[in-house]
Protein 1
Amino acid sequence: MTAKTRALIVEDEPHIAEALLFLFERAGISADVISDGGAAMESLANYDLLILDIMLPGASGFEIAKAAAAAPNRPKVCVLTAKGQAADKARMEEIGVSAFVTKPFSNRELMDTVRALIAAP
Amino acid sequence: MGVATRVPMGDRIRTQRRSAGLTQRALAAAVGVSPDYLSLIESDKRQIGGRLLRQIADELGVSTEAFTAVSRDRLAADLSEVSQNFSGTPDASAAELVAFSPKWAEIVLDLHDRSLTAEARSDHLVERFARDPQWISFAHDILSRITSIRSAAEILSDFRSMDEGQRGRFVETLATESARLTHVTRRMIDSLNEAATADAAGADVREVDAFLQDHGYYFAHLEEAVANLEPPGGDSASKRFQAALALAEDVASVAVETELLGHRFRTDGASRRARGALLRYAAGAILMPYEAFRATATATRYDIDAIGEVFGVSFEQVAHRLASLRRPQAEGVPFAFLRVDPAGTVSKRLSTPQLRLPLFGACPLWVVYEAFSQPGRTLSQMVDLDGERFILVARALEKAARRQAQPAARFAVMLGVPAAHADSIVYADAFASGRESVVTRAGYECRSCAMAGCAQRAHGASAA
């Protein structure tokens, strides 16, 4: 699946987005970056994997995760949470999200989670 | 409360001397000081204590208590209210504690204020960390900065092969995100400091009010420093007051320090607040010179609007000045002054020996609260407080909003005076009959009130 996986990084912090994009390229995963939640909602059909921040302009990470769960292509979702935000994680789990990486994450931890998610059925 | 309370005793010494039938010269000779020096003492231009005070008391056949009693009444009343706040029952032993050791009474009040401040600050911080959007934003910002820095640093370390442009951008990320991290952390610390230094429980307000009250809200040095100054012009009461305040800063700063001499405030905030209050007092004295003001007040029977028109000042400024008509031998009607906000928080209180105003919000039946329902109108009331009657006069005021869509600040100010002075004040005319039908039965504040059948009761034994 790795070869054909298309990932969308939804992150409004440009420095984090740039680093993620670099890591995905090096891992051979095709990826795009969108910083606005509203624009991300409209692009869900084009991607198999979402890397999703929670606090976003336009639409929140929760709205996007809900839309992803309801989308015909059911993209997989990995959420970037913040330490100490247990309530956010619980809410995402209710929506059906199972992959989380806590900021500030290590690159290795993030990419291991992403690879495991891609490999999962 | 201040640790060292300076009480103006001159007038009381003079009164006791006269009732003992002694001349200034005779008393001065008896205690071994010059008549001039005794005159300075009697006009509160010299503070005395210790041996000389005891000698004077002995010579006049009274205890030194006779000269310091008002401050102790205030201490006992405050202490009793504090005990009600804690235990819910009035405590008659407050006066005994004050009589036994005023120092310890001051310390108890001081500790009470400190505990209120600490409690309010901790509530404030818990609220901040848990729900305050500003703190959620700080946390998000800091974690994002650290994430960027960590990711970029790991990339630079793990991937040796990278084009120079890309490497330069990640190095740049390290620099800019570190700078932003520093910035947001500073903002967070500043915000913590603001919370820590704020007078969260209003302790500074109470400390300064107690200081003003212990001086009977009359400051001879300030009056003297601004006497005979030309009141500044201006097209509104607030502009004239600002101009008077600037003038007071120029001419009365030394007098302010003289009035504060020997008094130590617990916090810098209280000390600044006291200086501000004394400068505003001086500004009021510039706009409303004592004798002219007292004469106008007497002639208009304390009609606050009429007085305001004569001196070109606001309702609140007149009300404040009326509370300061305490010059020995030239006193006005003894008005207590109270200012509250719509939530009931007391932002200024000047009790008199006749009318004690509560520390934490008065009886809800007082007209000062009804004033909010009719802003700009002067309301009056005759109240019966535990068998003593008082005339209360109140008005709600708005301080104009500084920006569109921001609410204006609202306050209600109230003056209170024993009904014995009813003939002297225009607001009492409506209650001249003195019949029960024109008198509101009320209390001082809820916790200590014993009035049965009060529909407004919130605290105390018979609360629902």
Protein 2
Amino acid sequence: MTLTRRRFTAAAAAGAALPLLATRAHAQAVKLRVSTIPIIDTAGMQVALAKGFFKDEGLEIDTTPTAGGAAGLPALAAGQVQIAFSNIISTVLAEKQNLGFQIISGGSATSDAPPDLAGLVTKPGAGLKTGKDFEGKSIAVNTRNNIIWLYARAWVKKTGGDPDKVTYLEVPFPQMIDAVRGGRGDAAFVVEPFFSAGRAANAVELVAWPYNSTQKRIPVAQFVASKAFIAANAGTIEKFVRAYNKGVDWMNANKGSDEWAGIIAGYTRLKPEQIKSIGLPLFDKTVDPKGIDETVALMRDHKMIEGPVDTKAMLYKTAVTAVK
Amino acid sequence: MIDRLARGAAERAPGAALILALLAAIEAAVRAGAVNVALVPAPTRIAERLGEIIASGAFAAPLAATLWLLFSAYFAASALAVGLGLLMGRYRAVDNLFEPLIELLRPLPKPALLPPLILFLGLGAPMKLVIVGLAVFFPVVINTVQGVRGVDPVLIDTARTFGHGQRNILLKVILPSALPFILAGMRVSLALGLILAVIAEMLAGTGGLGYLVLDMQRSFKVTDMYAWLVLLAVLGYALNAGFNRVERRAAHWALAQPT
Amino acid sequence: MAEGAPAIPGAADRLPGNGGAGAALRRFMSGRASGVLLIVVLLALWQISAEHWVKSENWPPLTAVGQAFLDGMRSGELPAVFGSSLYRMGIGFAIGAALAVVVGLLMATVRLVHRTLEPLVELLRPIPIPAIVPPLILLLGLDDKLKIFIVAFSTFFPVLVNTVQGVRAIDPVPLAVARTFRHSRARTLVRVVLPASLPYILAGLRISLALALIVTVVAEMIAGSAGIGYYIVTMQYAMRAPDMYAAVFVLAAIGYALNRAFLAAERRLLHWYRTDRSA
């Protein structure tokens, strides 16, 4: 939270009209504003920040955390931030509306095999095992028309059920375990750390892994920038992605170490012991267009979009070939 | 009747002119490319979409959902608030008991109360009614208390001299006198209630205008989002106009009460 | 009649022999004792239920909340977070309130202004804040500008409504007298209308103040990045409910303190106003 305190002091001095936090004086440093979410998925960038990889590339990063992802892309479209961390569903939807974004980096992905960063849970002993069992029942998702909802439906379909016969309750993640335990919902497709905490407390039991049983290594979220900005600042983008990739490398090499846990705890506010024991996303330096294609196909199946999506055009070169 | 309509139209003319001028300015800005059309669509496009929504009747179910949530919470919470407010304004002991709690709860933003609310009330109607009801409750209770305190003590003394019991004094003397204040509070609460109903729909939604606005935003269907937003604004306008009418009637009645 | 009528000084204050701060404090304490007791009982219920009946991450024992509060204060994080929110709120409130009083006075005294602005005001008033956040982000970004605007926007309307109704409630005689001196319209506004409608304006300000705090927090919850709202949401998602509730308690305390402070200031101003008037 150092950035918060620093920003507060600077703002207090500056008065009502608040420019970007830009008081550090590197004459050559390029300033970038990046909209992020304080979740584990952005750990690569946070590590790169903490270890000074961005500074090494001559970049000064001002992160603007938003509690949910919904505020990032509009800010990107308006040019208020230059780079935004966005989930793939939102990015595809934005592409459909021709908002002119491109994915510039790899990001977080789900697993190839169990375990995963989110799971489907029910009350212990509920006896619901397949999609067919869930017909007429309810599954808690955090919001409808997003990735959790989509893959819950995909799983129901894959395991022999009709996804339209299942009710999807909108419940914020922190309340999902309560909802299932209290019998308000029959099941929840819940992310970490609530997933592990719920199981550890024996409040819920695992039923399935909707993510990796439907699609391996789903490219869940990546960094996105506008085509116009990329065209005008190709060099800067490359530097950003290079520093980010270094962060990812470090992370993968140091997973489980105290320093690693400390950095993640710093911006997510999770407790370090917790971080070491929960299911983590995979961190990739590139995005496989085939992975996006599969997700897009699902989106089409479940009526989120119509018509084709040019996934290759959505990826800028830095997201396809890892920048060294 | 025509005369009244004509006068009404003339009344509204400058206001309507201002709104139209603003819309025209936005339209011009969009056409000239001065704003990003992906995020600020042309008002004419929004109007088109709005027309489609109305013509197809798609607005009916969400509108009904929002109205049901709003009115249920509004009337229940207002009744509670007026009742409690009358007692608090009249009897110091009741005021002493509840005022600290009320003052402590009032500044809490309702989304901050979601975790315990969902935990204890679940996800259905009761939880949403409580969120909206809480927003409605406070302005009304505070205003009622103020209104009761502002009642001329002479009126109360006179009523007592005539041998009226506490209940009669409360209902026949104090309530009518405090009515203007109560109504002012209920006016604020109506607006607040609508806002909270929309927030409740966005946070724990299952249909309703607020839910749709958010859903359209998330899918980047910006034109649709604005169309539903306009419906929401018109609803608010209509509610306020309706309230004015009711208030005028009630004021008549209050003034007509024998004092 | 205005929403939230002026604070009427307790009649007891006027009786002889009831002066002095010590006496007032004693009266306050014995007066509000039952209310405080109620709160204490509810808190005890919370603690007991969290320890014995309710098993949930989202219902921690009060003792854990207390510990989180102490940790937050000691590390300086809670004060910093609250300071930043109050700063944003203060600016938004001042801007919104000042604009509202000016516009309100104009609307209430100049018929044409009223007819022109009223439909627009009535159309904008009920729009819920979360719904206008995306277009506002487009115009104002994710920074303090956005939050300040949102606070000003929501402060504006209650104060405006109260100002208008406050002016309308003025005894028409002094207004009529002032109107005959048409050339000093501005003077009329400042010297007669403004002071006369002060009780209602102040009541509107008090309501808006509470609203401003809530709106600040909600705006921060949605468009993140600093302040109480963001802290509350982040703590929730980090499964640190005690920290979240600690912040909620501080929020309640601050709201209470702000309201009390405002009431005291209001009483001061109105006391002057009343004595001035009755002279």
